[in-house]
Amino acid sequence: MLTEIIEKTLPEINKEQSNKELGDRTKYVGSSDVSGCPRKAVLSKLSPPEHDIETLIRFERGHLAEKILLKIFGKTNYKYSTQEELIHPEYPHFKAHVDLFFYSKDMKSIGICEVKTTSGIPDKPYEGWVSQLYWQMGLAKLIYPDAKIKGAIFALDLNTGERKEFNSYEPFDLIFEQLMEKAQDIWSAITLKGFTKPECEPSLLCGSCEYQIDCPVYDRGELPEDVWNLAFSYADKKAQEKELKKQIDTLRDDILKYTGDEKLSATNEDLMLSVSVTAPRTSEFVKGADLKEKYPEIFEECKETREFPASLKVFKKKKKSKKK
């Protein structure tokens, strides 16, 4: 019953909330549009996707992070607003909605914060996050030309509580001009409806794109730069994991040389150490291949099917030494 209620009600809540905070997103180009793939931005306006429940729950995760920050800043004297709408003075179909918009009484000092919820905090902000922030700061500069504008990205992992702030951003005219050109191309493709085709920008987000199936450039074997960057980090951390396991095993063996492998508990001011023994030390198991061959009926009756995640291996190439 609960599942049915959630599946029926959550889409309605999301639609009402989105319309209230962001308006009709098919009528303008926003931060998420200029920071991602132009083709996806155009298609999402012309034929908005029906998001599944899992995606809608992830959207709600972002609102939870904002609510946490609102509770915190509600206890301070900072002047701020949420989902502040910034509209281009000349092109009203170019907009941004700022998660946290800080300002001084005379509007001479403005702070823009983009809030992101993640599973694991990246070492550096994703390119799309940064583009969103530059778009927002660029629009703010047009609206408040005399203000000192600063920008930040706040990333929060709601599962672990880990958080990180990427700050010290300021408006950058060249980047904003490039984003404006991209916005113009997106808007042209929307209004001309097929007479101009938007460009595709392959990225990590292609993996969850609703319009992936007929994308002219998506290729599983051609990885975009941000995926290669992740692969590099993966290889680096796997190498660290291997080395750490060696160190851990060595430390374990050295400790057991002193304590022995009999059951033991010991404590000091900082640690509690215990040696546990699982008895018996040996275990028995059935060879699946032999059982299947000798007793196929029993094998079929007792077998269980398990799914395993795809295996991923990434190795750093050894650099060739230059010949003298």
**How much helix is in the residues?**
40-55%
Task: Indicate the structural class.
Answer: alpha+beta
Stretches where pLDDT is under 50 for at least 5 consecutive residues are: none
Largest sheet: 5 strands, mixed
Widest sheet, order of strands: 1-2-3-4-5
Gross morphology is extended
Distance linking N and C termini: 74 Å
On the 0 to 100 scale, the average pLDDT is 87
Q: Tell me the strand percentage band.
A: 15-25%
- Number of contiguous helices: 9
Quaternary: single chain
Order of helices and strands: HHHHEEEHEEHHEEHH
Radius of gyration: 27 Å
Query: What is the strand tally?
Result: 7
Describe the structure.
- Helices cover 44% and strands 15% of the residues.
- It has 324 residues and is α+β, with helices and mostly antiparallel strands.
- A five-stranded mixed beta sheet has the order 1-2-3-4-5.
- The relative contact order is 0.09.
What tags apply to this protein structure?
alpha+beta; two-stranded antiparallel sheet; five-stranded mixed β-sheet; 7 strands; single chain; 9 helices; 324 residues
Short note summarizing the structure:
This protein has helices spanning 2-22, 31-34, 38-46, 53-73, 127-143, 173-192, 225-259, 288-294, 296-302; strands spanning 80-87, 95-103, 109-117, 148-156, 163-169, 264-267, 272-275. It is α+β, with helices and mostly antiparallel strands. A hairpin with a 6-residue loop joins strand 4 (148-156) and strand 5.
